[in-house]
Recover the amino acids of this structure.
C-alpha cells in the first residue's frame, strides 16, 4: 500500500492507548490517532478509589503514561478534549468535535478501534439530581470527590451498592474519618462476585473496621437541603448523608457503535468475535464497551476490568496491523483490599454454577497463608466450587488477612486449563515456610472436595446448618473438641447438642443416637472429619461434618469470634485432610 | 478379611505421618504403626533453618503435629526411638531395634510404607572429621547448631554449598551477627535451580546484606586446632571458620530398601511407579527417598521437598487401603527468602532445557509486583524459558523484593497444563492496584517471548553482551535513554557506543551505522524495543535489544546499581511491550 495505514482509536483510558501502542510496535508506518474526550489519557482508573481515599497522594501518579509520551516516543497523535460524534462506516470516517471550542471535523480511518468504556448506572428517583450525589468513574469524578473530602465539609457518606469500586472508596473514606454507610439491595456485599459465607466473613470485618453495611435494603429516594443531599431514604429507614456515591454498577458505552449500526449484544455490550472485530470488518472494539465470553460457560458476559482492557488492546493492535490473534475470554477474576482483609474470586459462584445447571460440590477451608510455625502466618478462608460430575473446578473465592490473591491466581490459571480437583491437589506449588505450608490451602480444598466426591464424607455449609437450627429441625450437633475449647465458644442449637472429644468418641459411642442426623464440628473440620469417618465405620449413615467448623462460622453466636480473631489453631490443621 | 489390615510406616517426618493419617482416614479398622528412629515425629524440617537463625524461637513450634496426637486422635501407634533394621519381604515383617535399649523385635505388615528420607552428602577429605563441621538435616543438627550460635563462641561460619538450605541458614546467621561465607564449587548460587542472570542479581543483594559469597571455588580440606575446625582450605585460599556447615546436597536413604532387594533407580532413589509402589507390590515408598518424574521431560529426577513428601503420603495412604491414585510428578518448584529478597524457580533452567535438547527462547522482565502508582510497589525480575518450536513454557525464575512466589505458582500451574506463552499472556489473573498491574509481569514476559517468536524482535541476555564487550567484538551499543539518565549510569563498552534518545532516533538515523551489529538498551527494554522496531523498519537487519536493559544488568559497571536500588521507573514500564 502506498498511502499510510490510518488507525483511529476512540477512547484513551486503557484499551485504547494499549491498542495504539501495540499498533505502532507492529507497524512503524501507520498513521495512528487516539481520540479522547477528556484531557486525561492512559489514566489509572483503578487507582481512583485510592486517590479519593488519600492513599495515593499525587494526581500525577494516576497518569500511567504521560500524554507527551505518545507523540514523543511512539509517534501517536493524541487528540484530547475531543469527542467522537458519529461514525460514517461507508466512507470510513469519524466526525469529531472539540470539547472546548465545539469545532467539528472528520477523521478518516482504514481501521477504527472502539474503546469507549462504560459508565456508571444512575438511579432515577426523587432527589437524584441533588448536589452531593455522584459516582466515581472519571478523573473528573475522582478530583471532585477528593476535593470534597479534603474540604472536610463532608461528615457522612452513603454508598449505594456494595460492589468492588464502592467498597474500595468506602474503605478509604472511613480511613479519612468519615461516617460511611454502604447500602446494598441484595443480601450481602459483592453479591454477584462471592457467595454468602465469604461475604459474611468479610462483612464482619468491615463492620468492625468502622464501615456500616446495610444489605437487603433498597434506596427509594434522596432528601436535600438547599439543593445538597442530606438524607438517603431506603425501604427500611433514613440515613444521614452529606455525600452519596452511586456504585450500583456500570453499563457499556455503545451509543456511538449502535448509532453506526454495529451489532450490540443482548447484555448491552458491543458484539465482537474472537478477533475482537465488530460486525464491521474494519472496526474493532475492546475494553469495557464489549461483551466478553466466559471461559467456563462459553456464554457472553460483561467483565469491565482494566486487566482485560489491556489484553484486548494488545490483540486489537496486532489485528489492525495485519495480525490474527484471538482472545480466549475471561473468568471474572477479581481481588479487592478492604482494610487489612483481602477478598478474591474467580469463575462461577455457587449460585451462578447452579443457575448454569451444574450439580456442584463445594468446600470451605480455613487455613493459613504460610507455615504456622513461621512468624506472621495469617488466616485465609477458601471456598471452592466444583462440578460434581466431572470434578472440574468452576470457581473459587477467598477472604482473610492472609495472601488470597496468590490462591486466586493459581485457581484462575488452573480453571483456564479445565483443571479437575485431582489436578489441583497435585500442583507442584512453590513451598517454603515464609510463603505457604507444605500443603497449600488450595491443595487442601481440592482434597476435601475429593473426599466428598469419593463418598468418604459429606458436609453442610454453615448456612444449611443455621437454617436447620432456626427451623428447629431434629438433628444432633456433635462437638468433638475439648471441653475447654467449648467453654471458649460453641454453636448454639435449639435441639440436641453433644460434646464428645474426638479421643473419647470410640468409647462413648453409646451417647451418640442412631437414626438421627448427626452434624459434627470442631475448630476447622479436621477432627470433625476424623469423627465422621469413625461414625461411618460404626454404622452411622446419616452423618455430615460442618464445612469449616467454628473457623468458618459466619454467625455471631455464643462467643464465636471471626476466624481472624480466634486464637490458637488446632495442632493438626497443617496436616490437611 | 477378618484379621486387621496391618500397615507399617518407616519414617516419621513428613511423608510417613501423612501416609499414616490418610490410611487411618480411609480405613478405621487398620492397625497402623509409624517407626521413627528419633524421638521427633512430624517435624517441621523446613523450619530448621529459621530455628537456627533465631526467627523461630521455640523448639516446640517445630512439631507440626504433637506426638501424642497420633495415638489420641488417630489411633496410630508411634514407635519413636526405634530403628528399622531389615525388611523380610518373604514373611512380610520388619526387624526393629530400640535406639536406647538395643532391644530387637519383628513387626509384621500387610503393607509397608518406606518414608526413609534423605541424608546430607558429606566431604571425605583431610580434617572433615573435625568438630565444628556439621550439616543441618535432623532435629538433632538443628538443636546443636542453635546451641552453638546461642553460645556466642562462634564468630565465623563457612557454608560449603550455596543451595536452598545452606542459604536459608547462612542468612539467619548473618542476622545473628556472625561473619558468614558461602563457598560454592559451581559458578553461582543455587546453580542447579536458577540461571546466571537471576543468581547474579540475588548475589549482589546477598553480598550487600553482609553475606560473603565465593563461587567457582572448591573446598580442598579443613584445618583445626584442638580438634575443632579453624580454617577452610579452598583451591583459591584459606577462610577462617569456627563453624562449617556442609550443604552440598542430599542423597536418598535407600539402604534398607536396597538390602531388601527393592529396585533402586539410576539417580540413587527408590524406584516407584505412578502409584508410588516399589518393585514389591506390598511395599510403597514416598518422600525424599524415591525418584520422582519430571512433568516436563517425563524423566526421573530427585526432588526432595516437604510439599512433595506430603502429596506422596496422601496418595500412598489411599493406595495401601484399597484405593488407586497416581502421582503426576513434579516441576522442581522452589522458593526461598534471602534477607528481604525472594527467589523462586520452576521447571527447567535455560541450561537444563538446552541439555534436554530444546531450542529455547528466553526473556528477562524487570517489573513491579503491583501497580506503580499504588504505594509500596516492589521490584521483581522474571525470566521465562520457552520451547521455541511449540511455544510451551519450560521454566520460570524470579528474584526481587516483590512478590515472586505468586508468579512462580502461576507458572507452576500453567506448566502443569502444558501452557504456551499465548495461554500465559491471556490468563485472567486477579487484578487490583495493591496486588499487581493490569498487565502482570507474567503477562509481560509471555508477550516479550511472543514478540521474539514472531520475529518482531531479537534480544541478547546480559551475559551475551558482556561477553562481546570483553572480547572486544565489533558492534554498536545504542542507548536510547535521555542524556540525564545516561549521566546516572550506563553500560561501559570498549568499542562504539551511541546515545540517541528514542524521540530523536528517526531524525538522527544517519548517526547509526549500517552493516554493524546494533544492540539497543534503555532502562527496562521498553524504549529499546520501540527503537528496534524503528531501525528494522528503516532497513537495519542486524539489530537486537538487551534483555531487561539497565534494570536487569548484573555487572557492576559505570554506576549501575542493582535494580532494587534504581530510583525512578520509566513512565511506560506499566504499559508493557
Amino acid at each position: 500500500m502506498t498511502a499510510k495505514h490510518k488507525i483511529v482509536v476512540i477512547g484513551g483510558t486503557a484499551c485504547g492507548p494499549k491498542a495504539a501502542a501495540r499498533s505502532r510496535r507492529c507497524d512503524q508506518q501507520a498513521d495512528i490517532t487516539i481520540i479522547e474526550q477528556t484531557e486525561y489519557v492512559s489514566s489509572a482508573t483503578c487507582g481512583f478509589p485510592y486517590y479519593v481515599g488519600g492513599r495515593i497522594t499525587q494526581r500525577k501518579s494516576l497518569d500511567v503514561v504521560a500524554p507527551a509520551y505518545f507523540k514523543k516516543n511512539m509517534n501517536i497523535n493524541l487528540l484530547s478534549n475531543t469527542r467522537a460524534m458519529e461514525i460514517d462506516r461507508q466512507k470510513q470516517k469519524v466526525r469529531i468535535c472539540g470539547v472546548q471550542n465545539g469545532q467539528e471535523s472528520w477523521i478518516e480511518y482504514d481501521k477504527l478501534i472502539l474503546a469507549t468504556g462504560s459508565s456508571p448506572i444512575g438511579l432515577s428517583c426523587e432527589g437524584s439530581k441533588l448536589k452531593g450525589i455522584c459516582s466515581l468513574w472519571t478523573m473528573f469524578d475522582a478530583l471532585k470527590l477528593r476535593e470534597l473530602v479534603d474540604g472536610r465539609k463532608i461528615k457522612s457518606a452513603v454508598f449505594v451498592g456494595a460492589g468492588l469500586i464502592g467498597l474500595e472508596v468506602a474503605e478509604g473514606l472511613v480511613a479519612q474519618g468519615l461516617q460511611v454507610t454502604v447500602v446494598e439491595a441484595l443480601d450481602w456485599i459483592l453479591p454477584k462476585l462471592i457467595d454468602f459465607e465469604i461475604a459474611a466473613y468479610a462483612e464482619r470485618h468491615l463492620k468492625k473496621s468502622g464501615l456500616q453495611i446495610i444489605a437487603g435494603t433498597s434506596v427509594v429516594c434522596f432528601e436535600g437541603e438547599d439543593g445538597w443531599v442530606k438524607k438517603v431514604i431506603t425501604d427500611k429507614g433514613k440515613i444521614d448523608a452529606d455525600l452519596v456515591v452511586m456504585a450500583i454498577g456500570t453499563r457499556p458505552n455503545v451509543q456511538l457503535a449502535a448509532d453506526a449500526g454495529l451489532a450490540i449484544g443482548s447484555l448491552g455490550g458491543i458484539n465482537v468475535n474472537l478477533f475482537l472485530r465488530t460486525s464491521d470488518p474494519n472496526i474493532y472494539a475492546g475494553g469495557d464497551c464489549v461483551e466478553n465470553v466466559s471461559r467456563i460457560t462459553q456464554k457472553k458476559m460483561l467483565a469491565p476490568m482494566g486487566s482485560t482492557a489491556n489484553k484486548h488492546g494488545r490483540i486489537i493492535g496486532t489485528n489492525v496491523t495485519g495480525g490474527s490473534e484471538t482472545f480466549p475470554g475471561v473468568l471474572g477474576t477479581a481481588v479487592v483490599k478492604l482494610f487489612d482483609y483481602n477478598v478474591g474470586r474467580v469463575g462461577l459462584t455457587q449460585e451462578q454454577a447452579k443457575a448454569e445447571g451444574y450439580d456442584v460440590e463445594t468446600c470451605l477451608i480455613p487455613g493459613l497463608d504460610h507455615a504456622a510455625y513461621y512468624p506472621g502466618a495469617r488466616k485465609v478462608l477458601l471456598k471452592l466450587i466444583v462440578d460434581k460430575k466431572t470434578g472440574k473446578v468452576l470457581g473459587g473465592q477467598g477472604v482473610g488477612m492472609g495472601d488470597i490473591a496468590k490462591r486466586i491466581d493459581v485457581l484462575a490459571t488452573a480453571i483456564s486449563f479445565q483443571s479437575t480437583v485431582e489436578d489441583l491437589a497435585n500442583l507442584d506449588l512453590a513451598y517454603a515456610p515464609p510463603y505457604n505450608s507444605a500443603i497449600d490451602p488450595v491443595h487442601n480444598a481440592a482434597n476435601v472436595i475429593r473426599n466428598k466426591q469419593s463418598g468418604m464424607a459429606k458436609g453442610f455449609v454453615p448456612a444449611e446448618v443455621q437454617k436447620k437450627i432456626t427451623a428447629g429441625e431434629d438433628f444432633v450437633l456433635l462437638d468433638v473438641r475439648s471441653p475447654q475449647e467449648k467453654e471458649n465458644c460453641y454453636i448454639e442449637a435449639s435441639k440436641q447438642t453433644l460434646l464428645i472429644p474426638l479421643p473419647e468418641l470410640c468409647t462413648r459411642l453409646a451417647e451418640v443416637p442412631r437414626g438421627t442426623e448427626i452434624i459434627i464440628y470442631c475448630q476447622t473440620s479436621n477432627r470433625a472429619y476424623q469423627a465422621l469417618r469413625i461414625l461411618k465405620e460404626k454404622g452411622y449413615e446419616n452423618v455430615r461434618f460442618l464445612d469449616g467448623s467454628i473457623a468458618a462460622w459466619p454467625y455471631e453466636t455464643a462467643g464465636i469470634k471471626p476466624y481472624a480473631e480466634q486464637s490458637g489453631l488446632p495442632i493438626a490443621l497443617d496436616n490437611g485432610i
Chain A touches chain B through 104 residues (CB under 8 Å). The first helix of chain A runs from residue 15 to 26. Chain A has four domains: 6-45+60-118+251-319, 133-248, 340-453, 459-575.
